[in-house]
Design a protein that fits this description.
single chain, 355 residues, alpha+beta, 4-stranded mixed beta sheet, 37% strand, disordered N terminus
Amino acid sequence: MAKNKILTILAAVAVLLVVILTAGLIVSVAKDKTDKPVIDNNPTEEVKVSGKVYGDDGNELEAGETYEMPTAMVFSMLYDEPLASQLKLASPSVNVTVAHNFPYNNIKVDWAALYADGSDASSAIKITPTADGSTTAKVECLSAFAQPITLKVNVRGDKDNSATCTVDYVKRFTGMENFGMTGTDFDDSAGVEFYSNFSQGTVMPDIYLDSATFYLKDDFMSAVKSYLTFDIEFTPYKMQNVKGVISEVSGKQCVTCEPGGGYSWAGFINGFNNLDDAHKKAIYYAWFHAWEERNSADRLLMITVDITISATYRGNSFGGVSESEFIGNGYLYLSGEQYGMDLTPSLSLNRNIAF
């Protein structure tokens, strides 16, 4: 009897221990869950618009606002697409309402974004009507596109009644190649020329030569002076704030920046335009013969330039490039051949004369 009582007591103690341990485990788990921070894998971040939209009058259409649908719109991204994605920037969008003279009341319409060949362009321009058949829709640019897109709005059930809007996209300037000088020796037509590279788009930005400073090599300046009996002072030649003229050459976009207004390669010589004809001719002779004595490789290295070029559209930046000590093509324009090749030297103003 006593033995059974002892066994009963031991069993009760064992059960009590199990209950205590289980309760402790529950409390421990609950405590762990309470103490651990809650991690939000989808935090809400402020998203900013990465571009702008312009109407057919050139004025900006504010993102998110509603406008009467213009006959044309231009979308632009202020950042290139990879950067816009990295910065979590949203594509520009605008709400447009079809203004129509359709012979119906309470109409419903269907929206479409189409390329010129009639193919779907919704991967570039997304249209979201405010409701099924609504004459108001959100128009959003999702990506760059290389062909103009047409927004087409048809009256549902009557395809003969429609309204359209042409949509373009501003190209970004991504770099230059074949940079060189233009003009002829000491004439008033000095400038620069280069091929521009652009990203996808249908509208060109404006290209500006913000600044360019040209430097002649020391050995060439010394060579010119060696043919003169009088002293001249060389100086870097500068251009700034010149709008480029874009033309297509062999399928590429060629940009020419010529400031005019007296700019010429004579700008390398301080006070050149104030000299009399005799001294100018002596310099023409000296310049050409200093050029002639250089070999082909040295001619390539006779000039360097620090240059900054930018692209803008409606006052916003669309790329640019800056180069220092950049050696370009077009050095032949600095040969002095135009005026110095057949010139008779001055016996009093020129030296090192070879007859």
